Amino acid sequence: MGFLDGLKEDLRFLGGFKVTLEQMARPRVTWEYPLEKKPKPVRLHGRHVLNRYEDGMEKCIGCELCAGVCPADCIYVRGADNPPADPVSPGERYGFVYEINYLRCIHCDMCVEACPTEAITETKLFEFSFTNRADAIYTKQELLVDDEGRPKDLPWEDWRPGDDAHTSAWMRATSPSGAAEYEGRVQWSGELGYGVRAPEGGQSGWRDDEATGVKSLREVLTLHLDDAERPPGERGLPGVLQRLRRRMKLQSQMLRPGNRRD
Ligand code: SF4
Ligand code: SF4
After folding, report:
1. pLDDT: which is higher, 131 or 174
2. Whole-angstrom distance, CA of residue 208 vs CA of residue 90
3. Which of 159, 163, 227, 257 sits most deeply, having the most CB atoms within 10 A of its CB?
């Protein structure tokens, strides 16, 4: 064995770094959680809110359907007649007691499905915890959105921009069978602070990802495909440059004031 062959043999261990070096040149998939929060999927089930109409009226009519359907028996609702002189909701009745016990809730969203008035929905916030039972039982005071239509920021919750962005207006499981004519149609009544939410994209080519919040998540995921998995137009050097531009845009969005907590 000559000197060069020997050297080659001795340096074979460098091959073990190939995977590491390749990964170093690829975009980062991990996030510095909890400093940074990743964009959440539009349908993530988080902390509930009780919504109000654009005129400030409460959407809840105290029908108790959510409580009836809840598999964990964690909702307690009592309805009452609306005072004629000062009605709380547009219906005959309103929910004057509303409680969710988060020690029992499994975030199945069946309450959201059952609600006839879109009163109860879930935000994207799952970063909340408590040290006593009383804090874990959210009453109407905590659940009802404020005068701006935003969820109340409780001391044991970690709200960041975007956690309330897609609280409602997602397509229900009971929505149509994917027929294109049903897509892109708003199926949610207007809400205080948000107005009429954008409809969710469906199974056809029609999408409005910018409006529904899927876009940033999809961009992060596509950064991690191998070249062969990409559409032909996004392979090779042009694809690399395209992704680099996208990555810089994403990073500048993440570092925007208010999007990270230092
Ligand atoms: S998300 Fe499910 S478990 Fe939680 S309150 Fe609603 S129905 Fe009950
Ligand atoms: S949240 Fe909806 S389902 Fe529950 S009591 Fe109010 S209106 Fe009825």
Report:
1. 131
2. 32
3. 163
CB burial class (10 A; 0-12, 13-18, 19+) of residue 89? buried
Looking at the structure, tell me whether residues 71 and 160 fall in a common domain: yes
Q: Which ligand is nearest to the CA of 105?
A: 1
Give the model's pLDDT for residue 260. 44
Considering the domain architecture, whether residues 137 and 227 belong to the same structural domain is answered as no
- Residue 7 in domain: no
Looking at the structure, do residues 235 and 191 belong to the same domain, yes or no? no
242 and 192 in a common domain: no
Residue 232 predicted with pLDDT over 70:
yes
Residue 20 placed within a domain: no
User: pLDDT tens digits for 204-224?
Assistant: 544 555 555 555 555 666 666
Query: Residue 110 CA: which ligand 1 atom is closest?
Result: 7
Residue nearest to atom 5 of ligand 1 (CA): 105
Q: pLDDT higher for 186 or 138?
A: 138
Categorise residue 242: left if φ over 0, alpha if ψ from -120 to 50, beta otherwise: alpha
- Please tell me the total count of domains within the chain: 2
Q: Looking at the structure, tell me whether residues 160 and 197 fall in a common domain.
A: yes
The number of the ligand 1 atom at minimal distance from the alpha carbon of 69 is 7
Burial class of residue 3, CB neighbours in 10 A (0-12, 13-18, 19+): exposed
Determine the atom of ligand 1 nearest the C-alpha atom of 112. 6
The reply to whether ligand 1 has any atom less than 6 angstroms from the CB of 108 is: yes
| Cα(87) to centroid(ligand 2), Å | 16
Question: What is the residue with the minimal CA distance to atom 6 of ligand 2?
Answer: 60
Please name the residue whose Cα sits nearest to atom 7 of ligand 2: 60
Domain of residue 128, CATH code: 3.30.70.3270
Q: Domain of 126?
A: 45-172+186-206
pLDDT tens profile 61-94: 999 999 999 999 999 999 999 999 999 999 899 9
Query: What does the pLDDT average to over 27-47?
Result: 82
